[in-house]
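Handout, section B. The chain below has 305 residues.
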Amino acid sequence: MKEALHLKIPASTANLGVGFDSIGMALNKFLYLDVTVNDGEQWTFNHIGPNVDGLPNDESHYIYQIAQKVAETYEVVLPNLNVEMRSEIPLARGLGSSASALVGALYIANYFGDIELSKYELLQLATDFEGHPDNVAPTIYGGLVLGYYNADTKVTDVSYIDTPKVDIIITVPSYKLKTVDARNALPDTFSHEKAVQNSAISNTMISALIQHNYELAGKMMEQDGFHEPYRQHLIPEFQTIKGIAKQHLAYATVISGAGPTVLTLIAPERSGELVRALKREFKNCRSELVTINETGVSAKVLYQR
């Protein structure tokens, strides 16, 4: 019997306005990986579908590189593998595609290296690679996760709050926006006054979410001073999407991760009308309803003859 590791890894949205590099939420759009041992001399990759077009088929692949680094860390040797990859997550759109691939690589190394990493250890590794927990933590655990990575101690601590009872609409432009370009748009420093202001807004937003006060949470999300004022010009559709969402009484419209995807939180009774309005307005974007993923990575071992 031949073993096949099947991974179903959720997308994620980060920041939620004011939670820069520290808040993330898992979404029910998935990266699928089917992994088997091969009898050849190297790893092979088979990409299926438009969201993985153009990725390398050899050992320069990101998943291979990460898996090998984990194997080296734990002094194990991985067998040569076939990796079949399908994805509902568009690349470089602010929906955590690289974080999903990273987490997939960790699970592959853990299983085929027989390392027995706990979820806590997987999170520590993922954050060490990524530099912050906002995408990888919800990808691993599911739900809405807050986290802090201490670069000095190399330790990540996370906490969870109830999944918001709202509908989520994403509007995905046809163009990519590389994270490095979005990072370069940010200021290097903030004044003490601005830091206090942004911290207060973020704290209030989190408290409002805990209380399921979505009007207040949305009001705080849209007062972000950490990244949105500096990135909005990179997403020409942003202000128009925000205006249409306001007309439909949405709670908040924010940039998803580094963008260019725009994410809107809205009451369930209003979401259908809004997503249809956005689809009519933006022919070159994909507007759709998505749900919040509460389970994180699904890993199954299947047996083939």
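Note. The radius of gyration is 20 Å. Compare this with the example in section A.
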